[in-house]
Design brief:
This protein is an alpha+beta fold and 811 residues long. The protein is built from 14 helices and 53 strands. Helix 9 (685-691) crosses helix 10 (695-702). The two termini are 51 Å apart.
Length: 811
């Protein structure tokens, strides 16, 4: 324990320690692999060179990981082998800060590998590292091996215990991506992504029988059938035609449903006799080099294409076109397939929210149309009840004339806030189901087995599933093991649910839940695979009462081997877009990873985010920083007052997208932060409003019915660019050069302003990347840039930054 405390002390105090050479006290040394003289068929090799023993030994194969299983020994004497031999030895290093490290050996000839790469010198990113030595020994000759490490004092040699969380933990390995359950609840179709260290990812789908655990991999899976445990596949035949088949998951028996010469994007209706398909018509094209922009959205690839709905008869192969015209249409079917709920989307750029939906009930046989909702921009699609007697629609509080609006007078509800509305097909009455329910609806499904609705919600910083009783209006939370559920699915014939999710300190797990008893069964545990050798620090909840009187929720993460008598730098993180910062482990912005590098991490849920009720999320509208910035500043100050282990002079903040805007805006309102990072942030709401692909439509959320000409106070007085002279905090700007959501000019103009003002700033672009940095190699560099920036300003150590971006004598 004392060793761990000393390690923490060195990490925090010896931040700029000079490198010192230390001998490695113990090594793991594998047994020698004899290199016997082969039968020589010639005195020359294939390149015409003379065979010699040294080159033969050097080229001999040996397992480079063999040292891992060897016992640790302080004896560095290598016994004389009978024949010439190669053996592996190794040890580990661990560091919380970037550290330049050199390895030196004395004794026999060695090749040095650091993290698998042959090199005796490397800049170590924070984490645990392996140093492997390939040792060459001559026959009948004993050797003495000594190994030395030249590194800062806070680099631990052969650290005990589990490894800290590091970037590789997050990026590589096996991840769950989804699961669908068969109608009878006997089988799961599980989606997985396996990412290898070369950054290549394999996407696989596995069918697993729940009772026996037997499983097999499947290609072309589309969906489960509406009864039993058959699944439908689509595969391409030799003549490029598409074959659709139903396969019994238990026996493997395949029934070909039909073959078509072109693929249809759609899904099969109950009974699998008809297929509801999406028909895409390519829109008119102008000259590729010089062309007219018809609408703001015409800049987006594919906007001119239009989708309509068709119904394909499986038996005959005939396709009935259900809709046609210049408007995008979507459909969902009644349980018996006799009726379709058609949603027609029409654009109207002259009024918020710029796109309006009309929902029509269509009798498939007679083609008689009944308009249920007309030109409502705040309504989304709907789902039929299992008995076909009602429909549940999703919409924001302003839909249906505002019958679900619960915000105080003078406020505008957030468009991101979603509620459910029950429509009775007999009485033709709408009833709000969730208007007085604070969690925000993300997705939902009807359960045929019990007649209830199950909804995945943003519930503060969790994603929980609730059961909604449509008749009584009663809402109850399912008692699940994971508090951040990603997706769920219901069996059609049994009251059984499958879901996968994670928690604040564990990665994905997959479960099946009996909805009658509430009993869970664990099916897959990625955490047991990926995190078994990883040590995490403490997690805790911390809330405070804001000056306006309400509770602002948050949580914190502490470094492993935390010592409350020390002072630590702190990072503060907050939402982007409008969604809360979720209580999960895997993330681009991984709080446990930051904590592993020696930071206290404070994650706050300030005003404006969804998941806390309509009034709370409405604070995001027509505010551009009001309320939200106050909460972040108050929360940060209060957290520091209540926790003496935080160094109040070494606090950083960071955010992305709207969170990037907030990062910039905060620096115009306070000087409490010692450094900041904005990724893809908005520096001027006016330029973003006009330039971003979704600038004007996102403003329908954040600036409802406000425009640069009608409300210049909102757009100008809250623009960080207009307030740039107030900024004194060093800010790092990060941006994907191909960002179509928040264009890169938002970072460019703020960076330029701060340069003109002579303020500390840096700007790093990621070529070819959009709003999210998805390329693995670029993502590693992007994340290391962020870490290096905070090590520079919060730990007074610029070595990592200088390694990534050496100084250049350019003006």
């Amino acid at each position: 324990m004392m060793k761990h405390i000393l390690f923490s002390l060195f990490s925090l105090i010896v931040l700029t320690a000079q490198a010192e050479e230390r001998r490695v006290p113990s090594l793991r040394i594998a047994q020698p692999v004899s290199i016997k003289v082969p039968l020589m068929t010639d005195t020359l090799d294939i390149m015409g060179k003379q065979w010699d023993e040294n080159s033969r030994i050097a080229s001999a194969y040996v397992n480079q990981q063999a040292w891992r299983q060897a016992p640790a020994t302080t004896d560095s004497v290598l016994a004389a082998p009978q024949h010439a031999a190669v053996r592996m030895a190794g040890f580990t290093l661990e560091n919380r800060n970037f550290a330049k490290t050199k390895i030196r050996t004395e004794g026999p000839q060695c090749k040095i590998f650091i993290d698998g790469q042959e090199s005796a010198e490397k800049g170590l990113t924070p984490g645990r590292h392996e140093v492997a030595l390939r040792i060459t020994q001559q026959a009948q000759k004993a050797d003495t091996l000594r190994v030395f490490v030249d590194a800062p004092a806070d680099v631990a040699i052969n650290p005990a215990g589990k490894a800290p969380f590091q970037l590789e933990t997050l990026l590589y390995g096996e991840h769950l991506r989804g699961a669908k359950i068969s109608a009878d609840g006997r089988f799961l179709a599980i989606d997985k992504a396996i990412t290898h260290t070369d950054a290549k990812t394999d996407q696989i789908k596995i069918i697993r029988e729940l009772q026996t655990g037997s499983q097999f991999q499947v290609e072309g899976f589309m969906q489960w059938t509406s009864a039993g445990h058959r699944y439908i596949t689509q595969r391409t035949l030799a003549d490029m035609s598409q074959e659709y088949s139903a396969v019994d998951a238990l026996t493997g028996k395949r029934e070909v449903l039909f073959v078509k010469h072109n693929a249809d994007n759609g899904h099969f209706l109950p009974g699998e006799q008809k297929m509801l398909v999406t028909l895409t018509t390519e829109g008119p094209r102008d000259d590729a080099q010089v062309h007219q922009i018809l609408q703001p959205d015409d800049r987006q690839p594919g906007w001119r294409n239009r989708t309509n709905v068709g119904l394909l008869d499986v038996a005959t192969g005939e396709l009935q076109q259900i809709t046609c015209g210049p408007h995008n249409t979507y459909a969902t079917a009644s349980p018996d397939g006799k009726q379709l709920l058609i949603t027609i989307a029409k654009n109207d750029i002259t009024r918020r929210p710029f796109s309006f939906n009309t929902c029509i009930l269509l009798d498939v046989e007679s083609m008689k149309a009944d308009t249920l909702i007309a030109n409502d921009g705040f309504i989304s699609g709907g789902q039929f009840a299992p008995d076909g007697k009602s429909i549940v629609f999703e919409g924001s509080p302003e839909c249906l004339g505002g019958i679900g609006n619960r915000v105080p007078a003078g406020m505008t509800p957030s468009l991101i806030e979603k509620e459910l509305y029950l429509f009775d097909l007999t009485t033709r009455q709408f009833t709000p189901l969730t208007a007085d329910f604070d969690p925000n609806i993300l997705s939902w499904q009807w359960c045929k087995a019990d007649g209830n609705i199950y909804a995945l919600t943003e519930n503060r910083d969790c994603q929980d599933i609730f059961r909604i009783h449509p008749r009584s209006g009663k809402i109850e939370q399912l008692n699940l093991s994971e508090r951040f559920v990603y997706r769920f699915d219901l069996a059609k014939e049994k009251a059984v649910l499958t879901y996968f999710g994670e928690g604040h300190s564990n990665c994905e797990r997959l479960y099946v839940v009996d909805l009658k008893s509430g009993k869970e069964r664990l099916i897959e545990d990625m955490d047991a695979q990926r995190m078994k050798d990883i040590e995490l620090g403490e997690f805790g909840e911390w809330n405070f009462q804001a000056e306006r009187g309400d509770t602002i929720y948050g949580r914190y993460y502490l470094p492993p081997h935390f010592d409350p008598s020390l002072q630590y730098p702190m990072l503060v993180y907050y939402y982007g877009g409008c969604s809360p910062t979720g209580r999960y482990l895997d993330s681009y912005y991984c709080y446990h990873h930051w904590a592993a590098m020696g930071y206290v991490v404070y994650v706050i849920q300030p005003s404006g985010t969804t998941g806390f009720g309509q009034e709370f999320s409405a604070r995001h509208v027509n505010a551009y920083g009001d309320y939200t910035a106050d909460d972040i500043i108050q929360g940060t100050q209060q957290f520091c007052r209540e926790h003496s282990f935080v160094n109040p002079k070494k606090i950083g903040c960071l955010g992305a997208s709207y969170g990037g805007f907030m990062t910039m805006y905060l620096q115009t309102q306070t000087d409490i932060f010692a450094a900041a990072m904005s990724h893809a942030g908005i520096s001027d709401p006016s330029s973003y409003w006009g330039y971003g692909y979704w600038g004007y439509s996102y403003s329908a959320v954040s600036a409802a019915d406000s425009y640069p000409w009608s409300n210049p106070q909102l757009f100008n007085e809250h623009a960080p660019l207009q307030l740039a002279d107030r900024v004194h905090t060093p800010i790092l700007f990060m941006h994907g050069a191909a960002d179509t959501n928040v264009p890169i000019n938002e970072s460019i103009q703020m960076f330029t302003a701060l340069k003109i003002l002579g303020r500390e700033t840096a700007f790093v672009t990621v070529e070819g990347e959009n709003h999210h940095i998805l390329d693995y190699a670029k993502r590693i560099r992007w994340q290391n840039t962020i870490y290096a920036w905070f090590q520079r300003w919060l730990k007074d150590d610029a070595s990592w930054w200088n390694e990534l971006y050496p100084a250049k004598n350019l003006q």
